[in-house]
Amino acid sequence: MFRIRTTIAAVAVATVAALAVAAPASAHDTIVSSTPAADSQLTAAPTEVVLTFSNTLLSIDENSGTAMTVVDESGQDWVAGPPSIEADTVTVPLSEGMPDGAYTVTWQVVSSDGHPTSGEYAFSLTVPEPTATPSATPSETAAADPTAQPSDAAQPTEQSDPMPWPLLIGLGVVLLAAVITAIVIVARRRR
User: Fold this and answer.
1) In DSSP terms, which residues pair with 92 in a beta bridge?
2) How does the average pLDDT of the chain come out, rounded?
3) In the chain, where do the E strands start and end?
C-alpha cells in the first residue's frame, strides 16, 4: 500500500510540475501591415520600409534586438541606416538608385513579451521607361500607387520559434504520468 501511495504522489507532483512548465503561453507580436506591402509590384522606388506590429515593440539599447535588410537579386542590401522603433512601428531608410527587380525584406524585432520574432516577405520594382509625353513626377506616382500603402490583405510570413519545447516537454511528462498511473491501477486490480 505504501508503494502505491508513493507512486501516486510522485505522479501528482510530476503532473503539477509539467503543467507549471507548460502553462506560460507565448503570444508573440505579429506583423499587421507593411509598406511596401508583401508581394506588391511598385512602379517607383521606395524611400523607406515601414513595418507595423500588433503591439508595442521592445527597444533594447541601440536597437540591438531589431534588424532589417532589403536585399535585391544580386544580394546587395539597400538599407541606408539603422532601424527606428516608435511604439509598434519599425522604419528603415533605403538608399537611392534601386534597380528594377525582386527584393526580399528580412526583419527581426523583440516582441512585447521579450522574445525575438522574425520574418520575411518580397516585393518587386519595375520603373517604367520615360516617354516623350509628360508624366507624373515620382512623388505623384508614389502617392497615387495603391500598392505603396500598408495592406492587411497581403501579410508577410512570420517565423517564430519552430518548436515550442516547454510545451512538448510538459506534454511528455503528463503522458508519462498517465502511463504510470494506468500501470499502478492495473497492478492494484490484479491483487
Assistant:
1) 49
2) 77
3) 31-35, 41-42, 48-53, 67-72, 84-86, 89-93, 101-110, 116-125, 157-159
